[in-house]
Amino acid sequence: MHELSIAINLVEYVSEEAAQAGWERVSAVHLKIGPLSGVVSDALLFSFEVAAAGTVLEAARLIIEDVPIIAFCPTCQTEQSLPDTFSLACPVCDTPTPDIRQGREMEVTALEVHSADVHQEDAES
């Protein structure tokens, strides 16, 4: 399960950011995950809880936003949302669509943190 190594790296990254910024605690980490990232959200949620134990992220929520697969169709000349990971063809005209514009990502989009002075929400990372 590679999600555990991803969770450990995520906790290390956010912990370093927290130390540099002087945050006492991180209460939530917001992620965007695409279906082509190879990350299983449920496994990452479980692994995150284990990896965060004993850190400034202990008891933090991992909030995952699933993003769709978006590909550019050369025939329709538009971006199309693909229904699944099994068929990388335009759902309108059935043209193969190798130009994937979205769906591979796994990115931290926001953190909810507590500092000694002020509670800060959605601190951009």
Describe the structure.
The chain is of the alpha+beta class and 125 residues long. It folds into two domains: 3-67 and 103-123, 2-Layer Sandwich (hypothetical protein PF0899 fold), CATH 3.30.2320; 69-101, no CATH class. Helices cover 25% and strands 37% of the residues. The chain has helices at residues 3-21, 41-52; strands at 23-33, 61-66, 69-73, 78-82, 99-102, 106-115, 119-123. The strands form two sheets. A four-stranded mixed sheet has the order 2-1-6-7. Strand 1, helix 2 (41-52) and strand 2 (61-66) form a beta-alpha-beta unit. Helix 1 crosses helix 2. The longest helix has 19 residues, at 3-21. The mean pLDDT is 91.
Number of domains: 2
Low-confidence stretches: none
- Backbone structural class: alpha+beta
User: What is the CATH level 1 assignment of the largest domain?
Assistant: Alpha Beta
**Helical stretch count?**
2
Q: What is the average per-residue confidence, as pLDDT, rounded to a whole number?
A: 91
What oligomeric state do the depicted chains represent? single chain
The name of the CATH topology of the largest domain is hypothetical protein PF0899 fold
